């Protein structure tokens, strides 16, 4: 048993990894800012100690794991180095940790967390699987043979990993504060794919996947009514979810039902089915696991109050918003769909301003709150008003005037964003209660 101290334990990946190490029998604690963050609930539930940042936390006998958000001049990291202790970066530690498992990395510009959550849940229906999800959820099983994890492209962190399998959900230009353009993103994915030991399972209709194919040992592609290796056919939407047939390499494999709505969730399911097929998992147990899947945090998480449906969702890129709105339309075809969107970072808002406007215009009504900056970026060349001006009928919204949402009495109100949009949702829910 080892003793671990996490510097920045409330980060989603850090929180998940801390839980995994705790579950498999290690002693775990960590430090972070004192503001409450949604990732700390599972840590506290397991009794993992969370301390305020302080140089006094750095003592003999600990293995120090540092979050990638913190530079070497962070007081705790600096103190650890001064005392001669090793500080291991999150992605470096994770690369070493997964080497003793059959590992499946889930990557892509959008849909990583949803797909990792689904994969982890479904595989555990048949085989013990340790997992690490980007919503801050981690679960370790001491005797597990498999490890599933979310593999992030930001700053090319995923190049630390050499997994047995990788799922690529899509390749798109995001993180304009780091990547130069789409070619830069594609180059990163090419290098990542070349490090996969066995097989890449990829969305076949992605415009850039052809460029990846020549860099991999083996690839299976998936799609809907397409010419891919794994295909969903005869899709039917029911009141309780989506039913579809699956063909693999031209042969009928089985019929699946998922308690979810939207083509992007059918595609995520096909990726999971691909891994199950390659590892020859029990198909009946896999089908059963799909049926009792409950989703991951902040991915179309619903609360029903009075006759309203209030949704919390992490969508912060135009394509993610589009997927979230598609889910809402399919699940609630007869209701008014209202978007309450918080743009995340000035650079992303500026880069995709028109795309945000186009996709939010497909809501029945759009409200925009102030842009959420970041530690790297506290100001920019535009404001939320610039986005409002491009969306017909859109309005600016503040925390003080949330009661304006009351008029959408039978609506589906979707609070979307990667910043602190949850405080708006929480306040509105309190007003309704």
From TrEMBL:
- Into which EC class is this enzyme placed? ligase
Cell cycle found in the keyword field: yes
Give start and end of each Mur ligase N-terminal catalytic domain: 3-101
Record field: catalytic activity: UDP-N-acetyl-alpha-D-muramate + L-alanine + ATP = UDP-N-acetyl-alpha-D-muramoyl-L-alanine + ADP + phosphate + H(+)
List the InterPro entries hit by this protein, alphabetically. Answer: Mur-like_cat_sf, Mur_ligase_C, Mur_ligase_C_dom_sf, Mur_ligase_cen, Mur_ligase_N, MurCDEF_pg_biosynth, UDP-N-AcMur_Ala_ligase_MurC
Q: Where is the Mur ligase C-terminal domain?
A: 299-418
Q: E.C. number, please?
A: 6.3.2.8
Q: Where does ATP bind?
A: 108-114
Q: Does the keyword ATP-binding apply?
A: yes
What Pfam families does the annotation carry? Mur_ligase, Mur_ligase_C, Mur_ligase_M
Keywords of the record: ATP-binding, Cell cycle, Cell division, Cell shape, Cell wall biogenesis/degradation, Cytoplasm, Ligase, Nucleotide-binding, Peptidoglycan synthesis
Q: State any single GO MF term.
A: UDP-N-acetylmuramate-L-alanine ligase activity
Q: What is its main location?
A: cytoplasm
Q: Where in the cell is it found?
A: Cytoplasm
Function, as annotated, reads: Cell wall formation.
Q: Which family does it belong to?
A: Belongs to the MurCDEF family.
What is the protein's given name?
UDP-N-acetylmuramate--L-alanine ligase
GN (gene name): murC
């Amino acid at each position: 048993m080892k003793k671990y101290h996490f510097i920045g334990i409330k980060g989603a990946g850090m929180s998940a990894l801390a839980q995994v190490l705790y579950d498999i029998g290690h002693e775990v604690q960590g430090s972070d800012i004192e503001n409450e963050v949604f990732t700390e609930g599972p840590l506290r539930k397991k009794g993992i100690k969370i301390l305020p940042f302080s140089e006094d936390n750095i003592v003999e006998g600990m293995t120090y794991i540092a979050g990638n958000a913190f530079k070497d001049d962070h007081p705790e990291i600096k103190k650890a180095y001064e005392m001669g202790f090793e500080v291991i970066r999150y992605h470096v530690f994770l690369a070493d940790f997964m080497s003793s498992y059959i590992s499946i990395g889930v990557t892509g510009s959008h849909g990583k967390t949803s797909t990792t959550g689904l994969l982890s849940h479904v595989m555990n229906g048949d085989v013990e699987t340790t997992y690490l999800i980007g919503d801050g959820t981690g679960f370790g099983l001491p005797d597990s043979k498999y490890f599933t994890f979310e593999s992030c492209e930001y700053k090319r962190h995923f190049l630390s990993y050499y997994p047995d399998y990788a799922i690529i959900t899509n390749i798109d230009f995001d993180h304009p504060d780091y990547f130069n353009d789409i070619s830069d993103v594609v180059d990163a994915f090419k290098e990542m794919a070349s490090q996969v030991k066995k097989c890449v399972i990829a969305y076949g209709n992605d415009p850039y996947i052809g460029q990846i194919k020549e860099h991999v040992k083996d690839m299976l592609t998936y799609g809907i009514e397409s010419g891919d290796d794994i295909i969903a056919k005869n899709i039917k939407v029911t009141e309780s979810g989506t039913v579809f047939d699956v063909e693999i390499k031209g042969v009928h494999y089985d019929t699946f039902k998922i308690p979810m709505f939207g083509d992007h969730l059918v595609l995520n399911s096909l990726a999971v089915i691909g891994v199950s097929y390659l590892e020859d998992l029990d198909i009946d147990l896999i089908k059963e696991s799909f049926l009792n899947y409950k989703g991951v945090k902040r991915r179309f998480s619903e609360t029903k109050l009075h006759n309203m449906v209030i949704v919390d969702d992490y969508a912060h890129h135009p394509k993610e918003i589009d997927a979230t709105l598609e889910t809402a339309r399919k699940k609630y075809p007869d209701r008014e769909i209202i978007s309450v969107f918080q743009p995340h970072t000035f650079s992303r808002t500026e880069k995709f301003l028109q795309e945000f406007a186009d996709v939010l215009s497909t809501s029945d009504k759009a409200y925009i709150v102030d842009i959420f900056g970041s530690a790297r970026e506290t100001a920019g060349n535009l404001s939320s008003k610039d986005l409002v001006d491009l969306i017909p009928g859109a309005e600016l919204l503040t925390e003080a005037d949330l009661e304006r949402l009351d008029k959408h009495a039978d609506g589906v109100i979707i609070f979307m964003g990667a910043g602190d949009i949850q405080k708006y949702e929480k306040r509105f829910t309190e007003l309704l209660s």
